[in-house]
Design goal:
single chain; Aminopeptidase; 6-stranded mixed beta sheet; 4 helices; 24% helix; binds coenzyme A
C-alpha cells in the first residue's frame, strides 16, 4: 500500500497524502470496519503473489443514504493499462449489486485523470457535476468531477 499509494505517478490521482508510513497503513487497514454488519469492502488485486492494486467501498452512514457508498481505487504504475482497474471495478460492482444492497456508487475524479474517466464511463458511471477547487494537489487547487452509477436492475422482492 505504501509503495502503490505513495508513488508519485499514482498519488496525483488520489486524495491521499505523501509521506504515509507502513505503520499508518497497517493501522488503517486493521481498523477498517469490514464484516457482516456493514457494506464496507476493501480488496486487493494480486499478480504473482504481489499486490498490484486495491479498491474500497465505503458505505454512507446516514439511515436515508444507506443505499449509497463512495468508492476508490488505485493500481501500481507498472500494472496500469492491463485490465487490473477493470477487474477491481467488476468486483466492486458485483459486491454492490448482488450482495451488499447498494443502489448507488459515487466517486470523485480529477478532470485530467483520463484513465480513470475512461474506466468509470465504461462501467456505467455518469458525470453529475463538478466540485470547484476540490483539493490542493502539489501546490495547485484542482477541480473534481463527481460521478455516480445507479444499480441498473435492482433486485425485486419475491411475489407473495
Ligand atoms: C485509474 C486506474 C485505477 C485505472 O486502472 P488500470 O488498471 O490502468 O485500468 P484498465 O487497464 O482496466 O483500463 C481501464 C480503461 O481505461 C482506458 N485507459 C487506460 N489508460 C487510459 C488513458 N491514459 N487515456 C484514456 N483511456 C485510458 C483503457 O483503455 C481501458 O478501457 P478499455 O477496456 O475500453 O480499453 C489507474 O490508472 C490508477 O490507479 N491511477 C492512479 C490512481 C488513480 O487515479 N485512481 C483513481 C482515482 S479517481
Amino acid at each position: 500500500m505504501v509503495s502503490i499509494m505513495g508513488d508519485l505517478d499514482v498519488l496525483p490521482g488520489l486524495l491521499q497524502l505523501p509521506y504515509a508510513t507502513e505503520a499508518a497503513w497497517k493501522k488503517r487497514i486493521e481498523e477498517m470496519p469490514v464484516g457482516p454488519t456493514t457494506a464496507e469492502l476493501f480488496i486487493v488485486a494480486e499478480r504473482g503473489g504481489d499486490v498490484v492494486g486495491n479498491a474500497g467501498v465505503h458505505p454512507l452512514q446516514h439511515v436515508r443514504r444507506r443505499h449509497a457508498a463512495g468508492i476508490g481505487m488505485a493500481v501500481a504504475k507498472h500494472a496500469q493499462g492491463q485490465g487490473v482497474g477493470t477487474a477491481l471495478m467488476a468486483a466492486i460492482i458485483d459486491w454492490a449489486d448482488n450482495w451488499a444492497q447498494l443502489l448507488r456508487l459515487e466517486l470523485t475524479v480529477y478532470p485530467d485523470n483520463d484513465a480513470a474517466l475512461a474506466l468509470y464511463r465504461k462501467c456505467g458511471f455518469v458525470h453529475e457535476g463538478t466540485h470547484r477547487a476540490f483539493a490542493l494537489r502539489n501546490g495547485v487547487y484542482i477541480d473534481a468531477h463527481c460521478m455516480a452509477r445507479l444499480h441498473p436492475n435492482p433486485p425485486p422482492l419475491p411475489q407473495a
